[in-house]
Amino acid sequence: MHDLLQRFLSLPWDQLPQWLFLIPAGIMLLAAAGAVVFRNLIHCALWLVLSFAALGVLYMALGAEFVGFVQLLVYVGAVSMLVIFAILLTPSDEVSASNNPLVHFKLSSAVNAVIGVAVTGLVLVGLLAAIFFSPRAGGVTLPAVAPTLPVAKIGENLLSHTLLPLQAVAVLLTAAMIGAALLAKEDKRS
Amino acid sequence: MLQILLAISAVLFCFGLLATLTRRNAILVLIGIELMLGAGNLNFIAFWKFSANPEALTGVMFAIFSIAIAAAEAAVGLAIVIQVHRRLHSVDVNQATQLKG
Amino acid sequence: MNDFFKLIWDYVLQFLGLFLKNWDAIPTETMRLLREFLAKLGALVGFTTPQWIIDAICALVAIVAIIAVFMIMFALMSVFERKILARAQNRYGPNRVGPWGLFQPVADGIKMLTKEDLVPRAADQIVHLLAPVMMVAPALMLPAILPYGHGMTAINLSSGILYFFALSAGTELAVFMAGWSSNNKYSVMGAMRAIAQMISYELPLVMAAIVAAFAAGTLSPDGIVQAQSGYTAGFLPNWYICTPWGFAAGALFYIGALAEANRCPFDLPEGESELVAGHLTEYSGFKYAIFFMAEYVGMFAIVGMFVTLFLGGYNAPFPFLEWIPSYVWFFTKIAAIAFSFVWVRATLPRMRIDHMMQFAWKFMLPMSFAALLALAAWHYAGRNALGWGLSAVLVAAPYLLLGRFCFGNRHSPTNRRYYFSE
Questions:
Q1: pLDDT higher for C366 or C406?
Q2: Under DSSP, is residue C236 helix (H, G, I), strand (E, B) or coil?
Q3: Smallest Cβ distance to B63: which of A28, A35, A67?
Q4: Can you give the residue ranges of every domain in chain B?
Q5: For residue B24, what are the contacts with CB-CB under 8 A and spacing of at least 6?
Q6: Is A149:A68 a contact under the CB 8 Å cutoff?
Q7: Which residues of B touch A71 (CB under 8 A)?
Q8: Which CATH class name applies to A1-96?
Q9: Confidence (pLDDT) at B6
Q10: Looking at the structure, do residues C120 and C66 belong to the same domain, yes or no?
Q11: Per-residue pLDDT for A166 more than 80?
């Protein structure tokens, strides 16, 4: 018993933390699959949120805490709410039509689906082949010291190296806000 | 480990592509685009973690800007979807054919 | 076996000895003793305890302690809120259960536990079940980054403020899940109101927090509290609330916190008179209790954030009061702000929804930008008469302008005419 405990404790536990990122990664992929396949749009949106939250946790597990928090703040807090509001504001027939799929069966949409799945499969196979069988594959190793992400350095970077992109993003966000408000505004003429 | 991360990101990208290509609802198409952007961000973070010079923070800055742009894209895209629904009473991307030449 | 008891006795004595020395350091010293004790316990049994086991046990102890403190605060708040409200309305309030009605939370808990858990047949069962979980999980994670005293931050994150707001974003989702899954018109309307309100008030809330973060030059709550220690001219504490820009930002944060916690006068989502109970309509029994608990814990967390950002956290208000331990100050300030929340609830009527949204977008958001500008003026002019004057003008001018143009004479109160339907 004592021996067993000792052996259990002397397993390579220090290797474990660097593989823990597989948990959020798995959750993220499952949730992304859910977001794609479910029929109910709200369920899709909820799976999407889970997927984004898991992606944020994955960033944190990889050492980029700041990006993970930004991801949670932007996607779980803002984008998911936008998606949900949009779903509720646009009552769609995709949900109601699902009661009897044969009535609404269209050859064109079936062909669309088959082509889509085929293209996606090809892309996936190509990407995975490029990742695992390219000549340079496997040559990269983790740096000796795991990289950290000090917040102060991000701030300095934002205001020195990436000042122009920062201002461009500010202009873009302002334009997007005005544009979205104008687009979604009720048309007075009709 | 970098390869595993890239493979995860590739699978995520393909889920997004699948949603974009096969679903008819415009909102789900946007969801697919968001998933693909997330896959791109994951690649940035992975390459930052394994880069020779992580102090430069290049990948992280890219990811932060990309998240900001994705938020703007989602806002405008969903506003367009709402406007399309107001005009056509449908969010089916196959029916929005007014601009078809 | 004898060694084992001797070790325990030794550390119990050391723990008791802490009370004879510096009271301020009792919690941190206790954690240090626990670490030592665990290491020696392993050595006694015959192997070296791995560091991660010690870390995990200490983390568990910290988690249990923080959650227990917040649960006790929730229980006390639920009875004191009713008593204070009652006093404000010339009533006695709960006084039957235990001395002065202090055991009322226990009775409430038993009632909630034994109630039947009703789920509507048309509800989305799984989402309906997950909504309370989604609500309570972030609420319980929020207090982790608050600095309770000198060196008493459970997780000392360098981006703690961001963590706080990222997690509190999860509440909106939980509210939506609760409202939508109930399959009830009033639930969805209440949930949509709640989400619109939370999103609108999150902007000025975050902007006000950014003002404090800018002033301290860090996103870490502990760093912000440390930046507020010390006194100006020997008596005025360096709290951000004592400066013009800090006062504006603090007031905005306070109002935003009221709205985020769904407290009166922003309790429209649960407006009983028009929406039954908003997103909580179809919840009963323990799930309802969990929502209730999450709301109160979230409220305490955001009050703790307010105290951290603007009220100097664990710093004493006057130099001659510094002998009182820092954590006592922190919780005293939380209690004072919580009392003011109840006071506001007893005083103000509920706002109308369009007034509420106008207030957030047309008044609070521009004011938060003005506070940021005032902080910039303060930063460049320095902590002198010029700085005080400039930042005071930069805060007061937009306040008067916004008050004149957005809520000006157009909406001044007139004699209301009542129309009856006879």
A1: C366
A2: strand
A3: A67
A4: 2-88
A5: A94, A109, B92, B93, B94
A6: no
A7: 41, 67
A8: mainly alpha
A9: 86
A10: no
A11: yes
